[in-house]
TrEMBL record:
Matching InterPro entries: Methyltransf_25 (IPR041698), SAM-dependent_MTases_sf (IPR029063)
GO MF terms held by the record: methyltransferase activity
Species per Swiss-Prot/TrEMBL record: Streptomyces hoynatensis
Top-rank lineage group of the source organism: Bacteria
Protein name: Class I SAM-dependent methyltransferase
Limits of the Methyltransferase domain: 63-153
Gene Ontology terms: biological process: antibiotic biosynthetic process; methylation
Keyword annotations: Methyltransferase, Transferase
């Protein structure tokens, strides 16, 4: 039996935050999309995490990349053999993704209230997108992830890790964003019904400021 198809409710504060985030990404979307799209080529550990996720979900059903931006990670997942589509809050980002990857499906939407039936997905990738969720609102996002994932479905989170500190807001170039302790983020997802399968911490490479965290999780029954 699948979960009900009612999306998560958002607070007035989060609704205002989402409008601010969408407007900020709309404003820089063209410049953002012109950045190199082969970043993954220089990060073998990141590719390995995505490959593990792909091995767990390939052939099982649809997968969504939530917060897909102009689409390069969605395309990478496609190349790994997944039935994948992208969702992003920014209409301009979605337009650019459709132009760059016309063979893929991209839709405008918010990851806290997805236009999907309960249990419709077998996998979700959130690649540096939950970083913009206000910390108090993040449980709502995880509840929505659980709703749209089938039992046993997989969730992959990529985020900026706080390196021993608490949840910390930082000066993201686009809009408000947060660094998370990996244990705390894993615990929060666990409270929403996700069991950790594995994790990967990567130290910053040249030109990066922060440690990168990755959590691979499975939705419970």
């Amino acid at each position: 039996m699948t979960e009900p198809s009612t999306p998560a409710r958002r607070s007035a504060h989060d609704a205002a935050h989402l409008r601010t985030t969408a407007d900020a990404y709309d404003a820089i979307a063209t410049v953002y999309a012109e950045l190199p799209r082969d970043d993954l080529a220089t990060f073998p550990l990141d590719r390995a995490v995505l490959a593990a996720f792909a091995e767990l979900t390939r052939g099982a059903g649809p997968v969504a990349e939530l917060g897909c931006g102009p689409g390069p990670v969605t395309a990478h997942l496609r190349d790994l053999g997944l039935d994948v589509f992208g969702v992003d809050l920014s209409p301009v980002m979605i337009r650019l993704a459709r132009e760059a990857y016309p063979d893929l499906r991209f839709t405008v939407g918010s990851m806290d209230a997805l236009d999907l039936a309960g249990g419709e997905l077998v996998g979700i990738v959130s690649w540096y997108s939950v970083i913009h969720a206000p910390p108090k609102e993040l449980p709502t996002y995880f509840a929505e992830f659980r709703r749209v994932l089938a039992p046993g479905g997989h969730l992959l989170l990529a985020f900026f890790e706080s390196e021993g500190g608490p949840v910390t807001e930082f000066d993201h170039k686009v809009t408000a964003a947060y660094r998370w302790p990996i244990d705390e983020l894993a615990a929060l997802a666990g409270e929403a019904g996700f069991a950790e399968i594995g994790r990967m911490l990567r130290e910053p490479c040249e030109g990066e400021r922060f440690r990168r965290g990755h959590l691979l999780m499975r939705r419970g029954a």
